[in-house]
Fold each of these.
Amino acid sequence: MGNRIVTARELAPQTMLFEIEAPHVAQRGQAGQFIILRVVDHGERIPLTIAGRDPARGTITIVAQEVGHTTHLLNALRSGDEILDLAGPLGKATDIPTGKTVCCVGGGIGNAVVWPQAAALKAAGNKVHAIIGARTRELLILEQEIAAHCDSIVVTTDDGSYGRKGLVTDALRELLSSGEKIDEVITIGPVIMMKFVCLVTKEFGVPTQASLNPIMVDGTGMCGACRVTVGGKTRFACVEGPEFDGHEVDFDELMTRLAFYRDEETRARQRDHDCRLTRQAERTATPGKP
Amino acid sequence: MTDEAGSKPKRILNRSTTKTPMREQAPRDRIYNFDEVPLGYTPEEAVQEAQRCLLCKDKPCVAGCPVGVDIPAFQQLVMGGDFEGALRKIKEMNFLPAICGRVCPQEDQCEAVCRLNKRGDPGAVGRLERFLGDYALTHDVNVTPHVDAPTGRKVAVIGSGPAGLTCASDLAQRGHEVTVFEALHRPGGVLFYGIPEFRLPKATLVREIEGLKLMGVRFVMNYPVGKAESLASVRQRFDAVFIGTGAGLPWFLNIPGENLNGVYSANEFLTRVNLMGAYKFPDNDTPIKPIRRIAVVGAGNTAMDSARTAQRLRPEKVYLVYRRSRLEMPARKEEIHHAEEEGIDFHLLHSPTRILGDEKGRVIAMECQEMVLGEPDASGRRRPVPKEGALKTFEVDAVVIATGQGPNPLLLADCPEIERTNRGTIVVNPQTMQSSLPDVFAGGDIVTGGATVILAMGAGRTAATAIHRYLMTGSAEPRPEVATDPDAEAEAAGEGRGA
């Protein structure tokens, strides 16, 4: 008995939004928390941030980008299918201030997390700015959904195909120089982006929460695969995070640790690719002929 | 012939001074597979071993067993070939014999106090227990104990490790409605994620747990209480709660280089391999990095499990590094023996000082300080002290830290109201396992810190007795005033003095 997918929607190439039945997570989940799911029995446990929830319907929303074998399996599912199981909500919720001016800076798939964060910030009576970026227009996700909770939103693309050409850090620097007092920045996206966002906000002395995405196995504080160095101390992102003071995070170490299983990931992906080719070959083969 | 021999010929015949040997996979074979190492007794071997039992009247072995299995009684049944009866006798006290027969430290418990020790080996209690547990699983023997009429009381058991499973089975037997909550996707706790396949086959574990389901115990997986639901809410839904969430928080050494790629906690290493089946990558999706040379730090059972697991991943070399000497190694003798047989290279009196990495952040070596034994410390063990100027570097590409675990943080972070020690373990009344909250009981590693499976089972049993009392009388403490016969009164008074 798995968790049924009630909605599956393609947001961008290789990026799917799912609404999945998970009543207790829908009840208790907060912005910034995550779930661990398995698609199949011999599968990995992968962490995915909760992008939204509907307690009345008992569903949660997650957004998955196909980066490895497990997200490949997940993104092949459609409405009515089931994933094997999920556990959550895990991790700590985003620390939501009240009556402040906050800027959310997201990049790529991280924008799926900006969405609930902006919503929670707005609901708590904050002034909310958002700067969201993508490599190119077709990879930009959830712009409308995020904009609905923001006082201002700036979109950047690396290639200038949509919004402003450039990086989120350019737009952030501009906002921080504009004279408006920004009390806090919350950032989520590729590690390299978060690293540079934090360098910019440090320059301006603006407190910054970074939402980290290390490798996890159990996600319940048991294995320590997710350990990150924050302020010179080892912390477990799954139970003490995933959000930490961005000015204290050792992003270089995080990048190194994230790259550890790249060879195995490639090997698994190659198998996915070969399987797809085999399936295609089977479909195109004419029955009866050798 | 003595009188004794005349009255009980069956057990005196063929009494050997040594344990009936148990066949094992040869080391040269087993390091290439994850199959179980000891192969178990045949029925003939079991009968032969049981015949060694002296059937002592005062049964020192029973007192040596944390869950009080009537060992001579079951051995007597085995002698007569009544395996089903023997199994029933064990299951009166221990619902998980196939597990305990494999993982209990019998040499420190029942077997340590066996009278046969005076003439040679003690009785092979663990091997017989395992034989009977396996007999039930392979012969489809139904020994589900009698379950009392429903009491209408509901108990939540948080954590499905040895403490939780024992507590759940005892409470179900007394007619309570038991729900077990587990954070991971498989039941068993450390029995699943920690103890390797070659020591406790997962199929054995799964079938023992199936037995609990037949007694009406409900299992809810993927449900981390404290996160999925607050403890406060669970307390509202249930009449009593047992917390057996274990010592899941891995300790690191706090030396430089510990976050390099290739450094694992024993929990991560074992979880990847046991729970996620990474040794079957890419057929299973969770990987473990190929290992050339690995160092396991520590000398407890978890360290032995890690080293032996590592050896099966076919590296060139597995080192086991420990800062004290052989005498202080906390692992079971049998585990140490197996590890040595399998070619684990022990480096005792070596204390890691730092782990070195390459430009890609991967482990390339571990530096250790050689130690010598000094004066005894607070634990009574001789304290290792650095040997001046003696450093040794091990060229390794993986390091497993197996130096202990702290209490699992997930649930406790949610309920500050439960009284805890400064080590973070839950404070309980040792007689009842009751915590500072009257309806909440706890046992196993979450109370003791990292200990053994059978101690956790013993705590689960003690808690179940007290929970039953609490549910039926409103108090977890035995109440001497309700005792009606003089023996019970004397017993209760004795307990009072002891408290």
Amino acid sequence: MAATTSAYDPGPPPGPVPAAPRAALLVLADGRFPAGGHAHSGGVEEAVAARRVVDGATLEAFCRGRLHTAGLVAAALAAAAALGTDPVALDRAADARTPSPALRATARRLGRQLLRTARATWPHPELDALASAFPRGAHQPVVLGAVVRAAGLDGADAAHCAAYESVSGPASAAVRLLGLDPCDATRVLAAVAPAVDRTGAEAVRAALRVPESGTGALPAASAPLLEIGAEAHAGWPVRLFAS
Amino acid sequence: MTAPGTAEAGRGAPSGVRATARVTAAPDGRGGTALPVLTGEGPLALRRVRADGGWARALLVGAMGGPLGGDRLTVRAHARPGARLGLGSAAATLALPGQSGEAARYDVRLTADAGAELRWLPEQLIVGAGSDLAVATRADVAPGARLVLREEQVLGRTGDAAPGRLTSGLRLRVGEQVLLEQELTCGPGAPGGWDGPAVLGGHRALGQLLVVRPEFTATPPVARLLGDHAALTPLAGPAVLVQALGRDALEVRRVLDGALAELDAPDTGP
């Protein structure tokens, strides 16, 4: 009956629940999220073999280049998908922005793996519909946008997640490929982080134009060495990473 | 004639040249191709040249040089049903800075109707130091039409300390379907990493060859490398893209010529 008293003061009652969920984004962007991304180097394996990436400085230049090209395109596709754009139209737009068949196949494989994991994680009728519409897999950013919706996140979350993935994959692969100090790889990610934020914001602005202007409003920034290198890498008999 | 000339650029009026070159090709009824429209303007002069095998061929002949900053140049080529049109340029195009500090625009619009064949094979575009150029090439190809499109860019002239700034866009639509949409931005002020190991890797010459053929639907060419910095890739439709990087324009041209010769083997060009 006696009220228990404690020295611990919980403080005033909690304020309003934050409007934007955050933890789901951390789950999705976590490198340990089991969607197969760890098996891909984002082109860094080929760039290391060709000695274009040899240290932290060249890794950073690689990451910046990938972020502003493939990363921006992926972020805008993901944001547009998260905002509810027709995934079939987005998947075609992704094809048109990916001339390398090796990269198109990689994007679909990653999309399929992400969708499988996400349907088990955040079951949602839109994810089921996406799986039926694309039995061979949709481009990963298109799936990512749909997953973001299913997880209750928004277009900016999708864009930032895709933009971040475009550099985090190469950075962690470089640790294995170059024997780079993980601190150096993480320093690269921190150095690139402001550009990731700007890219995410630019991607969202582009995605917001899609309802009015169509998928032609999406960025189409290209990286010739990523495209050419992906075709070279796909022909290797032995490799550490799938792409 | 309302298009202001370069002389007005210094007066702060809408600066730069506005010029359009137009060519339309149509079958002449005798197995050849006529050019019912062939008009140039300002720095874009057009001249018909000899061609065989049912082709009509025209060249852009640089009459003034440029584009300079603030210029807006447009080339429109249209091959009507059944026409065979080859279009090239007599010399490389050199982009230079203008007085206004504005960017220059160079738009190319190519249209090939059903059963037509269009070849756009201009010489290189050289992006001189201090210039700022936006190139946009749009090709609309009807199902069943054929297209060969080449574009080559050289970043900086020999001896230029830095190239100019270039934004180069390429879009291919076959029927209702956009098969290729890409944009490359490089030079001073371009997003970080443009010259790094993911994008150009220090190369100063780049080229693209786009080939559309209806038979690629049934038998798409297989993706393959063409040397160390070039690849031929089938797009998600009846078209292939060759992307090539090189130290200089000659290296890129050799790769693109080799790829075209291989694709052309069962075909006849203009």
